[in-house]
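Entry for the shared binder. Reason: the reviewer on the internal report wants the predicted structure included alongside the sequence.
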Amino acid sequence: MTAEQWVHLASAELTARIDPMGAQLSVLRDRAGNDLLWGGDPAVWAGRAPILFPIVGVLAEGRYRLGADSYALSRHGFARGSAFTIVDSSAHNAVFKLASNESTRRIYPFEFELNVRFAIDGPALSVTTLIKNLDTRPMPASHGYHPAFRWPLPYGRARAEHFIEFARQEASHIRRLDPIGLLTPELHPTPLNGRRLRLSDALFETDAVIFDEVRSRSVTYGADSGPRIEVGYPDAPYLGIWTKPGAEFICIEPWHGIADPQGYGGDFRDKPGIFTIAPGTHRDITMTISLLGA
């Protein structure tokens, strides 16, 4: 959709614009008009903050199995490329909806509804995805947020001075992906120094840094001086950090799901990272983005 069709939200501290295509946060600015979010240069990476559903990452051979049936799904699922309906919009809040349809049923055979609510309150933006199972069967799914922040942030500090700081001490290992995006079995030593991840292109030469036992419920991103961004994720079991080496963005990705392990051939319902929603019930998943010290 064109930028003129994006939904505008604002507080005294932040402004945001959301594209109904994918219900994607596409602009986030501070009170001075500085861009905090990556601009989505298609020559590098066209995404800005896609919503991942009903999978996170890639599937082995691009397919998943449900009983005797097999379905194809591309990386991160179909929600990010789907047109959402604007259910509600005001100065501070907006709700977008995606319902199952003929196209989704061919690749994900469940009746569902996603409602994505954005709300701005002062220096904080919250995003909550309500996943409803409208089917008569338990519905397996994964979900992820994928916001890409400017690296460097627009506050005068060099790119090499930026880091991500975890709220708690993390496990001594991280996980990695292979060249086609499948989860490798090895545990790699954590690149954290204490609670800080010093950002460098070399970290991402083999794709994302994955914390598969993340303990922190939030991280902050920035430099030692100047404003920072805090990303909160109350119950995400995984956190991915990613960029393309040399690109001017860093993605901080709370996940409820993960890519297929190498060689995975089991049922989708048994895949690591899958959660199940009972018929007629829902699950809500929240992320917050707050500007600190501006």
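Summary line for the report: The first helix runs from residue 102 to 107.
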